[in-house]
Each structure stands twice: as C-alpha cells, then as structure tokens.
Amino acid sequence: MLIPHNPPTIAPPAALYVHGMEVRPGARWLFISGQVGVHADGRVGRDAREQAEIIWANIAAILARAGMSVRDIAKLTTFAVAREHLPALREVRERVLGGHKPASTLLLVAGLGQPQWLVEVEAYAAQS
C-alpha cells in the first residue's frame, strides 16, 4: 500500500505529484529503467508528445507484465531536453496517471543517450 505525504508546513506540490510516498513493509518492488520514445520496431517518436505516448505505453506494459498498474507507481523521474516540451509531457502523464500522484522529480538535461531522444522516464512501483 502506498501512503502519500504532503506536510502542511511546506509549499504544496507544483503539479500532480506528492512530496513523499511511503511504501509499507513487505511490499513487492518493481524498478523500471528509463524508458525513451522508441517504437518496438526501432522508430523514434517524431516529437516530444509522441515520445511521451510511447514511453507511457512502455511503462504500462512493464507494469502489466508484473501484475501492476500505474496506481502502483511510487516514484517517477522525468528527464527532458527542453522546457518547451513540458506542456505536452505533463498532458500525457496526467491523462495516463488518471489522478494518481506519485512522488516525482523533473530534470531538464543537456541531452540523453541518443540525440533524437527528447524525454526519458524511469519509475519505481510497489505493491503489497
């Protein structure tokens, strides 16, 4: 079971996330490697929105393979190469998460593993 923590003594989260997410003892953990916007056939998504759609489909597939769902995500880290991609990334993420608010970190980075990759997302999930 995941328990969110947003202390009233600090500023509220700036987006759909929580400041802390507690995972109860005995939970089963799944660590999802950074996913990038590459189709199964190797084609890279044409823009940040398409890459985000691919990334979240990959994350959902990995979670499903483990018998989990997006509701089991405890922590996300998103890496983006440009600030102008953030509105599309947020829209896709918020739609896919459907109100679920994991702990989250967003980093703007100079680049990722391949120059055509615009975003990468890693996730930690837990289920009791």
Record keyword descriptors for this entry.
60s Ribosomal Protein L30, Chain: A; 2 helices; 23% helix; alpha+beta; 4-stranded mixed β-sheet; globular; 128 residues; single chain
Task: Give the SSE map.
Layout: E1 2-5, E2 20-23, E3 28-36, H1 48-65, E4 73-80, H2 86-97, E5 103-108, E6 119-127
Parallel strand pairs: 4-5
Antiparallel strand pairs: 1-2, 3-6, 4-6
Helix pairs in contact: 1-2
Walkthrough of the structure:
By secondary structure, the protein is an alpha+beta fold. It has one domain (27-127): 60s Ribosomal Protein L30, Chain: A (2-Layer Sandwich). Helices cover 23% and strands 31% of the residues. It has helices at 48-65, 86-97, and strands at residues 2-5, 20-23, 28-36, 73-80, 103-108, 119-127. It has a four-stranded mixed beta sheet with strand order 3-6-4-5, with helices on one face. A two-stranded antiparallel ribbon has the order 1-2. α1 runs parallel beside α2 (86-97). The protein starts with a strand and ends with a strand. The model has no long low-confidence stretch (mean pLDDT 97).
Q: Give me the secondary-structure category.
A: alpha+beta
Count of DSSP-assigned helices: 2
The percent range for strand residues is 25-35%
CATH top level assignment: Alpha Beta
Mean pLDDT: 97
The CATH homologous superfamily is named RutC-like
Number of strands: 6
**Domain unit count:** 1
Overall radius of gyration: 15 Å
Shape: globular
Report how far the terminal alpha carbons are from each other. 6 Å
Under CATH, the topology is which? 60s Ribosomal Protein L30, Chain: A
Share of helix among residues? 10-25%
Tell me the CATH architecture. Answer: 2-Layer Sandwich
Low-confidence stretches: none
Q: What summary fits the major beta sheet?
A: 4 strands, mixed
